[in-house]
Amino acid sequence: MLNSIWMTDLHFVAQGLVHGVDPRKNLSTAIAHINAHYADHQFCIISGDLVNQETTEDYTALEQQLKQLKIPYFPMIGNHDERDLIRSLLPLPENCMAEFIQYSISTDEGLILCLDTHKAGEVEGELCNQRLEWLKNTLDAAQDTPVFIFMHHHPMELGLPMLDSIKLQNGDEFLDLIASYNSVKYLFMGHVHRALSGTMRGIPFSTMSAISFQAPAPVPNWTWDDFTAADEAPAFGVVSIKNADVNIKYTQFSQ
Ligand SMILES: [Fe+2]
């Protein structure tokens, strides 16, 4: 059994609020909860938007706070992040790609892939040929080992008017690739700031509430001009995997 934690969209700032929410306080509460109840879990994956504004000060303060976690953590890149700052200020596994924040984690229950969907200067995401080639080579090498993929940007339309325009732009190319492997068991995605689940090309997926601010409940014809963060509690996922079966316990906590 693999027991782990999944956090996403910290939007950390060293000072101030983001959409009316204090990301330091929310992260601190999450870490205290994890340390109190899940200190025996193997690691925590953080699926992007680590900081809000790509500054050295924010990453430095974030690192100080994340090292309070009693379990190791794996940082991933989102549209609000910057590769060189992540590489220089946060811990990354040795097998991380040289040019991207993309790597794999070997576990007793299979292989976890943490993808880099960042497109510099853009809110939308991309997986360039170099990252897709790494993915294909990694899936080929994994053979029948179960594979679980974490990524920031969603590769498919989710029926959310504002979020579908900032998804992974070459999502179909990515989905065509992974759907050709029976080994891919689950997609975990950040970016949405709200928990959704479903299947795409037969592969189950979930998004997760943010640690920072929450997206409002979806309504038709919504636009970014209407954006006001929802007054809802943040959450993280307690993820257990056994024999390629995935269980995600949605864990809300008070702000
Ligand atoms: Fe975000």
Descriptive keywords:
Purple Acid Phosphatase, chain A, domain 2, six-stranded mixed β-sheet, single chain, 255 residues
What features would you describe in this structure?
This protein has 255 residues and is of the alpha/beta class. The chain has one domain: 4-Layer Sandwich (Purple Acid Phosphatase, chain A, domain 2). Helix content is 24%, strand content 23%. The chain has 6 helices and 11 strands. Strands 4-5-6-7-9-8 form a 6-stranded mixed sheet, with helices on one face. Strands 3-2-1-10-11 form a 5-stranded mixed sheet, with no helix packed on it. Strand 2 (43-46), helix 2 and strand 3 (73-75) form a beta-alpha-beta unit. The chain is globular, with a radius of gyration of 17 Å.
**Class from secondary-structure proportions:** alpha/beta
> Can you identify the CATH class?
Alpha Beta
SS elements, strand count: 11
Q: Identify every distinct bound molecule in the structure, by name, code or SMILES.
A: fe (ii) ion
Side by side, the strands of the main sheet go 4-5-6-7-9-8
Low-confidence stretches: none
Number of domains: 1
Q: Which topology does CATH recognise?
A: Purple Acid Phosphatase, chain A, domain 2
Quote the average pLDDT: 96
Distance between the termini: 31 Å
CATH structural architecture: 4-Layer Sandwich
Count of individual helical segments: 6
Can you identify the CATH superfamily? Answer: Metallo-dependent phosphatases
Radius of gyration: 17 Å
Shape descriptor? globular
Strand content range: 15-25%
Question: Describe the biggest sheet?
Answer: 6 strands, mixed
* SSE order: EHEHEHEEHEHHEEEEE
